[in-house]
Amino acid sequence: MLQIKCFTFNPFQENTYLTYDETGQAALIDPGCHTALERRELEDFIQNEGLQVSQLLNTHCHIDHVLGNAWAIRKFGLTLKIHPKEAQVLKSVEVYAPNYGFHGYESAEPGEFLEEAQVIRVGKEELNILFVPGHSPGHVVFYHSPSRRCIAGDTLFRGSIGRTDLPGGNHQLLLEKIKSQLFELPDETVVFPGHGPETTIGFEKIYNPFVGEKAFH
What we know:
By secondary structure, this protein is of the alpha/beta class. It has one domain: Ribonuclease Z/Hydroxyacylglutathione hydrolase-like (Metallo-beta-lactamase, Chain A, 4-Layer Sandwich), CATH 3.60.15. The chain is 24% helix and 28% strand. It is built from six helices and 14 strands. The chain has a six-stranded mixed β-sheet with strand order 1-2-3-4-5-6, covered by helices on one side. Strands 7-8-9-10-13-14 form a six-stranded mixed β-sheet. A two-stranded antiparallel sheet has the order 11-12. The longest helix is centred in the N-terminal third of the chain and has 13 residues. It starts with a strand and ends in a 10-residue tail after the last helix. Pfam families: Lactamase_B.
């Protein structure tokens, strides 16, 4: 059975996820760990659970989701996997990181590109890739069909959606993709967002002020 562990890191309060199963194989998704203390917290959990991290995935490549990429690559011997449309987004982080106070930011190069409908294996489990751009041009979501859970990055939040005023953002596209990709998932699907608490597809389909049935457009 797939386990999902959430860590909240960095000043942006970003949710970093570790998914793993009974084989001990694990995928690290959106490592936002920046300080030595944050990295120790993640490392201690991995060690205590006896996990072997074999996948490094980014839902998208804004600064708060990639601060730990280079560290994770070095620490666990990983290959960074992102959507090809996020390559330029990732590259730009090293330019603007100092503006946010991250003077020690270390850039990382992607080693493999993810494709829509691709399957990522984590031990005996599989994560399906959904393409949900709008918050960023190459944003993907990782969906675990058997347990009806998805790691959604900054697409859909409890009562909100990802911001679209950053470079490469597209508000209308995000609304369309949430409806055509995420809202096609079962209502009971649990959404693990990039910030804030979990929610469900069913709840957001009704109550989300941007895309829900009760939204005022």
